[in-house]
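RECORD TYPE: protein structure
NAME: DUF4190 domain-containing protein
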Amino acid sequence: MVPEPDQPDAPEGEPEQPTSQPPTEPTPPAPPAATPPAPPAATPPPDVPPPPPVPPVYGPPAVPAAPQGPPAYGAPGAPPAYGAPGTPGAPDAGAAKPGLSTGAGIGIGVGIGCGAHVVAFVLMLATVFAMSTTGPNVLGLVWPFVLVALAAIVMLFFPKTRGVAIGMLIVAAAAWIVVLGPCIGMLGV
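PREDICTED:
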């Protein structure tokens, strides 16, 4: 017996047995699980214009910058000179100077000037009472105030006392404008 081409070969030596079941057709493979549809590709809204193109750069081509700082002098490997910037013992440019600032000195000078003018006023009154028999004169009235101004002018020559002297001279100028000038004018001396 010759096997049919549709059916598999029967083993040799065994007779073919009829089957009561009809041959079944192969079942098609099950479709894959339902996948969610892919979202559409993100596109910008139609009302947004594309970015403008980069404008061309005109002029000479960019040249790398030269190294900053002065050239190194001296023999290679030689230690830097004493006091050169960045070496131990060199003064730091950003370090605060010792002593008071000019603003603090001016404030202190204004206070000293006010006190000095109070003392000068007392000396002026003492001079006026001492000169009562001869009559007051301009030099007898102003000598204490001129003395305060001269002391402040001398202090201007020294850097440590310059701020204090400026404050004293500010008070001296104000005293002459506000008090002494009008008083001497009213006295008619």
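COMMENT: The CA atoms of residues 153 and 165 lie 7 Å apart.
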